[in-house]
Amino acid sequence: MLSVLGVLGGAGGLAAIAAVVVQRGKFRAEAADMLTDTALTLVQPMRARVTELEAEAQSARELLRASDERARRLQLTVAELRAMLDRWYALIFAPDATVRAIRYAVREDRRKLDR
């Protein structure tokens, strides 16, 4: 140990070792800062894109909800119209069918539709 201290020049050598240890910590801190800055530079565009995609997804969800509601209403309308046609078919082919009764039933159904 003494020979190592002698080779290093005593206190001057110890100071050099201490300076290297301190500088090593400083280099690590600078490297960490540089990595952090680089990561932030890369992450910012991704954050912006994620925000855009979230807005697009929300818009698509709202459009899907509106389309689902419209499809539901159209299915209901088709079911009502099919029931109306079934009533008319039954009226037309009833054994005691009259033109007057058929016209009356059609007129009443059309009034219901117009409401």
Distance between the termini: 105 Å
Mean pLDDT: 82
List SSEs in N-to-C order. Answer: HHH
What does the overall shape look like?
rod-shaped
**Biggest sheet, in brief?**
none
Radius of gyration: 43 Å
Number of strands: 0
Instruction: Enumerate the spans where pLDDT stays under 50 for 5 or more consecutive residues.
Output: none
Note the beta-strand portion: under 5%
Oligomer: single chain
Helix run count: 3
Fraction of helical residues:
over 70%
Could you describe the 3D structure shown?
The longest helix is centred in the middle third of the chain and has 82 residues, at 11-92. This protein has helices spanning 2-8, 11-92, 99-114. The chain is mainly α and 115 residues long. The radius of gyration is 43 Å and the shape is rod-shaped. Helices cover 91% and strands 0% of the residues.
Summarize the structure.
The chain is mainly alpha-helical and 115 residues long.
Please render the helix and strand layout as text:
Elements: H1 2-8, H2 11-92, H3 99-114
Helix pairs in contact: 2-3
List keywords for this structure.
115 residues, 3 helices, 91% helix, 0% strand, rod-shaped
